[in-house]
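Appendix B: a complete holo record

For completeness, this appendix reproduces one full record from the ligand-bound portion of the collection. The bound molecule is NAP. The inputs are the chain sequence and the ligand SMILES; the output is the full three-dimensional arrangement of the complex, encoded as structure tokens. No fields have been trimmed.
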Amino acid sequence: SERLEGVLGPKADAAWWLHEATAGLELAAFVLFSSAGGLVLTAGQGNYAAANVFLDALAAWRRAEGLVATSMAFGFWDVGAGLGQYLSEVDRRRMAAQGLPVLSADAGLALFARGLDRGEATVVPLRVDAAALGVRRDEVPALLRGLVPVRRVAAAALPAA
Ligand SMILES: NC(=O)c1ccc[n+]([C@@H]2O[C@H](COP(=O)([O-])OP(=O)(O)OC[C@H]3O[C@@H](n4cnc5c(N)ncnc54)[C@H](OP(=O)(O)O)[C@@H]3O)[C@@H](O)[C@H]2O)c1
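The structure of the chain with NAP bound, as generated:
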């Protein structure tokens, strides 16, 4: 529960307080920096995933209330700052091998702009390398399975009709 408090608490509370602090204001946008960690990278990150999914739910709820909101469940930004400052070459390679390569600053900003234009409560600005997904040896996260190229089953392996 200590870890939940330290990770989930600050992110979820901050989003909620922003929601409360902006009540009654005419906002052009209300953007939440969620993370794809809530959707596709959850191994060992349950507390972080929960915080991000709370943001996604807050955006959906705000829209249902007639308020502006966009939760952007971003992939990792390779910008040498923030969370990205801890990224090693090994991390970059691991993420690429998982089919989820890091985002350059330019790609992240372009996806930010496109995400706002979509008019949806939650968008997932994430690079997906379908070919790499297709050769992953571990379990592909459920939300990405539909993107894995279908492997052809050799006719010879099929039972005779
Ligand atoms: N960087 C990425 O690739 C990436 C990808 C997806 C989503 N995101 C999300 O984007 C957001 C910003 O990430 P970032 O990489 O820009 O991180 P960052 O530069 O480390 O910024 C984190 C901010 O949160 C504040 N903070 C950290 N722990 C806190 C706590 N316990 N209570 C109150 N404030 C706290 C920090 O304040 P201080 O400066 O005072 O420490 C800092 O202003 C995060 O919510 C992250 O989940 C980032």
